[in-house]
Amino acid sequence: MCEQADTPASRPALERVRVLGNERIAPGVGILTLHAPRCASEVRPGQFVHLRVAEGRDFILRRPFSVHRAQDGALEILYQVLGSGTRAISLLEREQVLDLVGPLGRGWSAPAGLAHALIVTGGLGAAPLGMLAEELAAAGVAVTVAMGAPTQERLVARGLYEAVARRVVLATDDGSAGERGFVTAPVQRLLAEGSFDQMYVCGPEVMQRLVAGMAKEASVPCQVSLERLMACGIGACLSCVVSTRDGLKRACVEGPVFNAEDVLWDSSEVPPKH
Amino acid sequence: MNLDMSVRFGSLELKNPVVTASGTFASGREFADFVDLQRLGAIVTKGVSLEPWAGNASPRIAETASGMLNSIGLQNPGVEAFIAKDLAWLSEHAPRLPVIVNVSGHSANEYASVIERLERESSVAAYEVNISCPNVDAGGMVFGTSCLGAAEVTAACRKLTTRPLIVKLTPNVTDIVEIARSVEAAGADGVSLINTLLGMSIDAATRRPRLARVVGGLSGPAIKPVALRMVWQVSSALEIPVLGMGGIMTGEDAVEFLLAGATAVAVGTASFVDPTATMRVIDGIAEYCHANNIERVSDLSGALIES
Questions:
Q1: How far are the Cα atoms of A15, A69, A80, B205, B272 from residue A18, in angstroms, in the given order?
Q2: Best label site of A65, A210, B225, B272, fewest CB within 10 Å?
Q3: How far apart are the C-alpha atoms of A93 and A83, rounded to whole Å?
């Protein structure tokens, strides 16, 4: 089961890891598999790792990635090529060695007695919810998933969700899978007909803000996973702050998962392209 | 051969010349999973002001070629919270680690008030006075870019303490030597340099600046040549010791700063890239000394061959 919010998180470490695989699964989207036994055994759903792909390059900072799945000493990371760092990741080959810092951050938490969860994903937002869906299903929690993406092929990790969820509802911008349009429309209908006792959301920030508003309207507790530019990833640099009802919080330590009702949404936030 | 790694920075005894650069190491706690804090020569804390400061809007960082820009804006919880949480934590978990508190303010009086409050705390080893932050509108670099302003803040702090007073200088000036001379004359026991270089980054695709505050401070390997030059200039001109920093990633980088005239060095942005960077730099300096038959690290300071 998922950790409770007050459970102390596992301690992060610097770990040398080896590339087990790196496959393109959709245009511009890949899945990187790393042999990372320590991190894989410690990581909790919703946590992230800080990958160093910069050695010998003219950019120097690490890149944060949520862990999609972890099993048998391997970590799976879903990435979309958006900038210099993700481009370098897309070029990693089997047996290459790099290092990571992790596991980092506060992940998803499940309230006691959780019976029916609604997971909402947008694009690559499907990545950090994979482990959670698997763990919830294994613990006997009914899971409903609403997935949105620009096109059918960008519905990444659809297979994982269809394998563990009681129901998966799809929406694509071009109508190539599920209904045409944003995922917010099916979420609205699901909330009207279903009795969910927890929502988990990850995707573009504007989508998270809209879905969080629907959750509040429906009185369903909602957790969101926020993405910010970060340098250190361990709470020192104060680059990745999120405005909350309780002041500024570091996405890398107090997040990336936040209770949606605590977040003071800032519509000017620009998505990182790393 | 026994290697003596210790250095004297004015009246401060450091077991090795490697300290943390303010703002890159918080107050140590975040790095305790990765390093043995007590192996550091000293910790220089994140900047502390009299009242809590919220810092700047996001985005606060942008990556650049071999470096990064930041405009954090000295976000900090204020001196009382710093004493209650950070200083107390350090006293408990790293009691033998010298603590150098970095002090910020909007006015000479505010700097002085922070020091006045910290004088009551026995675990403070020294102060680093930040007159060089490029990311705040009042105070910070405003003082560090004029000889009069730099001397005013230095003198106001000097009156209140007999502890070592190190003044951190900005490179964003025409002549850093004259600023350094003015803080020396005003009673500083040492200077640290360089703070970040004022810079800017633009996203051509959106036509927008990458930082919310438009401009920010450049750090990392990109600024090392500028930092070395300034450390060399200032240490040649001053009697008081220089804490050198700017893009140090390895032990060899640190040795270069010592050769240029620094008495001690600070590791900054490297700690973001590799949380164990400070330890690697300490080990790298020792390796250099062994390989070059250096018995005392302090012999490296200013040992540049210029003929």
A1: 10, 16, 20, 35, 22
A2: B225
A3: 18
Q: Does any domain span residue A19? A: yes
The answer to whether the CB of B10 falls within 8 A of the CB of B241 is: yes
Q: In this structure, are A136 and A192 located in the same domain? A: yes
| Whether residue A218 sits in one domain with residue A121 | yes
Residue B64 φ then ψ, to 5°? -135, 175
CA distances (Å), origin A192, targets A24, A113, A220, A252, B7: 37, 22, 11, 34, 70
Residue A64 lies in a domain: yes
As a whole number of angstroms, the distance between CA A122 and CA A117 comes to: 17
Interface test with A, best of B60, B85, B196, B202 (most A CBs within 10 A): B60
Pairwise CA distance, residues A22 & A34, whole Å: 9
pLDDT at A7: 47
Interface size between A and B, measured as CB pairs under 8 A: 97
Residue among B264, B267, B223 nearest B7 (CA): B264
A13 min Cα distance to partner chain B (Å) = 7
* B54 contacts A54? CB cut-off 8 A: no
Do residue A69 and residue A161 come from a single domain? no
Cα-based torsion angle of the residue sequence A79, A85, A90, A95 in order, rounded to the nearest 10 degrees = -110
A216 within a domain of the structure (yes/no): yes
Per domain, the residue ranges of chain B are 7-300
Q: Are A157 and A63 members of one domain?
A: no
pLDDT in tens, B238-268: 999 999 999 999 999 999 999 999 999 999 9
Structural domain total, chain A: 2
ipTM of this complex prediction, to 2 decimal places: 0.94
CATH of the domain at A60: 2.40.30.10
pTM: 0.94
Residues A73 and A144 in one domain: no
Which fold would CATH assign to domain B7-300? TIM Barrel (3.20.20)
Instruction: Report the pLDDT value the prediction gives residue A63, as an integer from 0 to 100.
Output: 95
Distance to chain A for B220, nearest Cα, Å: 8
- Chain A touched by B204 (CB under 8 Å): no
A161: domain CATH number is: 3.40.50.80
What confidence tens digit (pLDDT) does each residue in A176-199 have? 999 999 999 999 999 998 889 999
Same domain, residue pair A54 and A123: no
- What is the Cα–Cα distance from B307 to B25, expressed in whole angstroms? 38
Same-domain check for residues A52 and A132: no
d(CA A253, CA A269): 19
Contact of A260 with A109, CB cutoff 8 Å:
no
Same domain assignment for residues A123 and A38: no
* Domain membership of residue A82 as a residue range: 13-104
Chain A's closest residue to B53, CA to CA, is A248
